[in-house]
Write a sequence for this structure.
């Protein structure tokens, strides 16, 4: 199996053909582990995840996915992608059905209990707290045990308990030699769960970490390359 799960070569992307978001952007994402995509607001992080998730296509350049046949890509958008008028149970079931899987009731209840939502089976997600919504959104992204998991600001605005539940889920996911890509502004979180990181600025890669020492010095490195 290819060492790189994704290979991005000289892509360009703009939403209106004038304001370029990513420009001559190249990056190889190794299989296995958790990689953080860092950068200021507007650097192109969300656009990169949308490209990796095949939600949009580049205006120029090539993206190569080295995934198994018919493999799904798990995607947790910053907007969470939940149906507010459906319960947590119904949201999860819908995700399974959209992946051509028909889970039994016990499987869905087991997932809800795992993310500490077992007492809210029938509650509409529109009434969930931010932490509850983010836990459910991550669980929905993981229903197919994807080879590639994309998470856009997954820990934004949540409490420590929700954060721990989600970190445990992500670490468990990683054990299958799967790959997770996270965008975040939380540098301490990167040191806690990520294996390496990439800094992008003005639509281009300006730094790629290599060793554990880079993670430990992430604050210094970030402000050196992105703090301009």
């Amino acid at each position: 199996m290819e060492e790189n799960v994704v290979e991005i070569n000289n892509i360009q992307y703009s939403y209106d053909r004038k304001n370029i978001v990513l420009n001559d952007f190249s990056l190889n994402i190794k299989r296995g582990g958790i990689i953080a995509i860092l950068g200021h607001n507007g650097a192109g992080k969300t656009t990169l995840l949308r490209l990796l998730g095949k939600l949009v296509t580049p205006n120029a350049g090539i993206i190569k996915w080295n995934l198994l046949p018919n493999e799904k890509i798990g995607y947790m958008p910053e907007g969470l992608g939940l149906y507010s008028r459906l319960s947590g149970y119904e949201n999860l079931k819908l995700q399974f059905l959209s992946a051509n899987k028909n889970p039994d009731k016990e499987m869905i209840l087991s997932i809800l209990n795992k993310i500490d939502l077992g007492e809210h089976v029938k509650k509409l997600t529109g009434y969930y707290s931010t932490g509850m919504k983010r836990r459910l959104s991550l669980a929905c992204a993981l229903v197919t045990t994807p080879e590639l998991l994309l998470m856009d600001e997954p820990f934004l605005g949540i409490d420590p308990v929700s954060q721990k539940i989600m970190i445990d889920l992500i670490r468990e996911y990683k054990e299958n030699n799967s790959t997770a890509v996270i965008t975040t502004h939380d540098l301490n979180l990167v040191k806690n769960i990520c294996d390496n990181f990439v800094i992008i600025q003005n639509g281009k890669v300006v730094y790629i970490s290599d060793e554990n020492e880079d993670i430990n010095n992430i604050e210094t490195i970030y402000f050196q390359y992105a703090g301009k």
